[in-house]
Design goal:
7 strands; alpha/beta; two-stranded antiparallel ribbon; 5 helices; Glutaredoxin
């Protein structure tokens, strides 16, 4: 499925590294960044996640952040603890969410992010991502949209 800005975000439900369930409808009424990344504890994925961590104090006032990869909850837990990540990482081992959002790659999910508005509509798709500055880009975009 190819998604575009203006499309309704596909519904999802998955558990995070702590076993808590997160669903799209839980975030209605709030901006959400759903970011897909290839693999826990790899160089680019770590840079991207730590960028969100480092900007979390500002971002979390405006937006919820959920990371998604095909890694399981145990891997996410180790990754989140190692780098003190303050946001949920959803385990999508069966690739249902990854496929619904068109983030599937040959071996690993693609690095792509979806900025979803409070009504569940995709406001922006980030498909060309600089891991070092992605959090800053999202912060600029969410500030401009609020």
């Amino acid at each position: 499925m190819v998604l575009h800005s203006g499309d309704s975000a596909p519904a999802f439900s998955a558990s995070d590294q702590s076993g808590s369930i997160h669903a799209l409808h839980d975030y209605f009424g709030r901006w959400l960044l759903l970011y897909f990344y290839p693999k826990d504890d790899t160089p680019g994925c770590t840079k991207e996640a730590c960028g969100f961590r480092d900007h979390y104090a500002h971002l979390s006032k405006q937006i919820a952040i959920l990371g998604v990869s095909k890694d399981d909850a145990a891997s996410h837990k180790l990754f989140a603890e190692k780098f003190a990540l303050p946001f949920p990482l959803l385990a999508d081992s069966d690739r249902v969410i990854i496929t619904a959002y068109g983030a599937d790659g040959v071996f690993f999910p693609k690095r792509v992010s979806f900025l979803i508005d409070p009504h569940g509509t995709i406001a922006k798709i980030y498909d060309t991502i600089d891991c070092d500055s992605h959090a800053e880009e999202v912060h600029r975009d969410i500030t401009a949209n609020m």
